[in-house]
Write a structure and sequence with these properties.
Elements lengths: L1 E2 L2 E2 L8 E4 L5 E9 L9 E6 L4 H7 L1 E9 L4 H19 L4 H21 L8 E2 L1 E7 L2 E7 L3 E6 L2 E4 L6 H7 L5 H6 L19 E2 L4 E2 L5 E5 L1 H4 L4 H10 L2 H14 L6 E9 L20
Parallel strand pairs: 2-4
Antiparallel strand pairs: 1-5, 3-4, 4-15, 5-6, 6-7, 6-8, 8-9, 9-12, 9-13, 10-11, 10-14, 14-15
Helix pairs in contact: 2-3, 7-8
């Protein structure tokens, strides 16, 4: 079972809610929009909720966002292949979440690269991909490109993924500020993507990260976070349910131009009514996917 909506105009993201053997309740929603200027939506996304209880207990929920590139519908194909392949390999793998996600990314890279190699018109085909796996009281993530994974915890927002882009490399080298990078004309030039080369370096965590009631995660393509600031993402996912947050964020990106395709997913962790909330310790050592 999976949940994903792609729309051209108005529409609603349908929330999915799953109870797992955990002290938190997980609610998710995703929405993708073509934007105001594109003729094709090259973003893809997927939320997988296994129907089998054993599979749910073993691997949990998967949330993926990908932003394709290559033109002539190549980006749309690449992003769709990425989310489908990562999900298929992740649930088939006997490995733990981190290793299973990495295997899914490498298989997606191989399949996209080989597919493009058989079709000259698809030269340059590739995609970003950011994935969050939710299993019980922990999450694991993997990432390539400049789509993003955010964590909102105790009123603060943390970007857990590092953009694999030329401008962010310039920021790390001290050549640009973050604000200058937001406006830079080359901000969408990627250093890493799935499918553009035979091999790819995948960023991920070796160990899952614990989650707590009240935590929120947001995954977004650059069509969302290029036009919407982090504090606005934070406020939306804290103040609204996942469905409403997705709707509000996409509409805000459209109001600010909607120059690219726009995709956002929100994952919310809540305390089940019958379970008292634990005290949340200070946030420490959040791993950034570099």
């Amino acid at each position: 079972m999976f949940s994903f909506l792609k729309r051209r105009g108005s529409g609603k993201a349908e929330p999915e809610e799953v109870r797992v053997e955990s002290r938190v309740r997980v609610a998710t929603a995703m929405l993708s929009d073509i934007g105001c200027h594109r003729t094709i939506n090259e973003d893809s996304g997927k939320i997988v909720h296994p129907g089998d209880p054993e599979e749910m207990a073993r691997k949990g929920i998967l949330v993926a966002v990908a932003d394709g590139m290559g033109g002539h519908e190549a980006g749309e194909v690449a992003s769709r292949m990425a989310v489908e392949t990562v999900a298929r390999v992740y649930y088939a793998s006997p490995e733990g979440p981190g290793a299973a996600l990495a295997a899914g990314f490498h298989e997606a890279n191989r399949e996209i690269h080989e597919f493009a190699g058989r079709k000259p018109e698809l030269t340059g085909m590739g995609t970003t991909c950011s994935v969050l796996a939710v299993a019980g009281d922990a999450v694991c993530a993997a990432h390539v490109g400049d789509s993003r994974i955010y964590l909102v915890r105790r009123g603060a927002i943390y970007q857990l993924s590092e953009d694999h882009s030329e401008v962010m490399q310039m920021v790390r080298q001290g050549l640009l500020t973050l604000e200058e990078a937001r406006r830079h004309e080359d901000r969408n030039v990627l250093l890493r993507a799935l499918g553009t080369r035979a091999e790819v370096e995948v960023s991920g965590w070796s160990e899952p990260m614990p989650v707590f009631p009240g935590d929120r995660f947001a995954l977004s393509s650059d069509g969302l976070h290029d036009g919407v600031r982090e504090e606005e993402i934070r406020d939306a996912v804290v103040e609204k349910d996942p469905q409403a947050a997705c709707q509000w964020l996409v509409e805000l990106a459209r109001q600010r131009g909607g120059y690219d395709n726009i995709t956002v997913a929100v994952v919310a962790f809540e305390t089940p009514r019958e379970t008292p909330a634990r005290d949340l310790r200070e946030t420490r050592n959040l791993g950034v996917l570099k």
